[in-house]
Known about the structure:
alpha/beta; Alpha-Beta Plaits; 3 domains; 20 helices; disordered N terminus
Amino acid sequence: xxxxxxxxxxxxxxxxxxxxxxxxxxxxxxxxxxxxxxxxxxxxxxxxxxxxxxxxxxxxxxxxxxxxxxxxxxxxxxxxxxxxxxxxxxxxxxxxxxxxxxxxxxxxxxxxxxxxxxxxxxxxxxxxxxxxxxxxxxxxxxxxxxxxxxxxxxxxxxxxxxxxxxxxxxxxxxxxxxxxxxxxxxxxxxxxxxxxxxxxxxxxxxxxxxxxxxxxxxxxxxxxxxxxxxxxxxxxxxxxxxxxxxxxxxxxxxxxxxxxxxxxxxxxxxxxxxxxxxxxxxxxxxxxxxxxxxxxxxxxxxxxxxxxxxxxxxxxxxxxxxxxxxxxxxxxxxxxxxxxxxxxxxxxxxxxxxxxxxxxxxxxxxxxxxxxxxxxxxxxxxxxxxxxxxxxxxxxxxxxxxxxxxxxxxxxxxxxxxxxxxxxxxxxxxxxxxxxxxxxxxxxxxxxxxxxxxxxxxxxxxxxxxxxxxxxxxxxxxxxxxxxxxxxxxxxxxxxxxxxxxxxxxxxxxxxxxxxxxxxxxxxxxxxxxxxxxxxxxxxxxxxxxxxxxxxxxxxxxxxxxxxxxxxxxxxxxxxxxxxxxxxxxxxxxxxxxxxxxxxxx
Length: 602
């Protein structure tokens, strides 16, 4: 019995009808039959090839699918009905992920599917680890192949061998990151060790997204996850095929470039920065993106994995210190500075235990009455271990890095309260002593009770200690800090907002915080009396303060012209080198020379 392929059957029937028609009309049959024989042969060969391809795709151990331009299923070897949208087809395959991670992974896969560049990518689905390849066809359709990967070996002790492993497992096959699909921290560690063992050397780049934490906290993890997915996609597009991109956690990524020189690392860092700079559209809103990058090269900057990673991390910190969106190549000077900071932190911890720090006071005066109205306590440190005076610009960052700010704040509080208790009612002593307290301590809900206990134990009236709110208090920190400040006001402690008009301090702080005094930023005072903008800010601040019943004090007054301009604007309380430099507490006396000179010169 003759079995004809279906695609060849139609041309055969047409051929038969034309032959019969030609015979009836008297036309030679071969002239009609020849074209149809050729056409039938071509159709039969095409059908046979398509049948073989379909059979091969049906026999694949993984999934094969064909998608239309609008991301709907045309055919798959899983037997799903055609027309299913891509995200609905994908969702049950990601059922092992939590809901938020599942939706983020769907967004990432849709974005990658739209590119379909044919590059293999690691994925994790409900069935385990797999490798996905997607390629766009000339007609715009996309064909996808998913190849399951074997689980990595749990142990190799049962197979002893003296031969080296010729083909190590791919990095992305070792516990990929579930959100981005990149290599995870464990896989990164193994890849880094292989890079340092490679005689060709290589380069490591640590990439940290700028301002990601604030965006994540303000707008939720769904937005943050989409930013991370997009950043991972862009990083993957910026590197070479032989490079490895890993996500170490949070907004931290790493790129390993085997065999690359330091110059190549700098060039790659520039490509990464350019790739990340364009905005990311999330839920219809454009989000700016940039990154800080630290670069280190093996073996020059570290022959072992840990040493190379520390070098890159030091370079990353230096990039952040430059103001973000920067790339820094490691230099030995960075290691030297790091070791010096570590020594400084250790010395500061020992100095706090030994009571080595002391308070210097800078007095505050009323230009009209010439009275001493207060002083600000400034912590100073003459380190016995380091053999020199340590400036506040060195000491305070070291305290923050070492987590010593709360301990330093309580040390200053105790010394200040003891000093005021020692003064008693002396007429030549400042009636109010201001101390600076860090944002970290102001977030502590127990701090107000500690202040009340310290004052009560020393027998000091609460109004004698003024707490200055630091200028680095960000608006997002106001709710947490406001509770502590309200509790301090209930104790009776006055509050001052430091550096108003400069840095973070501004109108939202005045409106939302229970302050009694504004300390005008010295950058405004420095522009007096010649800068009209500085004078305009001064007059606006004085009008705001009078309307809210708040006193204003000007910091950084260094010239008589500045003092005259302040007095004309109605600001009579001043502090600065014109009147007094910071001096040891024992040397503080009633200082009237500055105000008397101003009155005499007016």
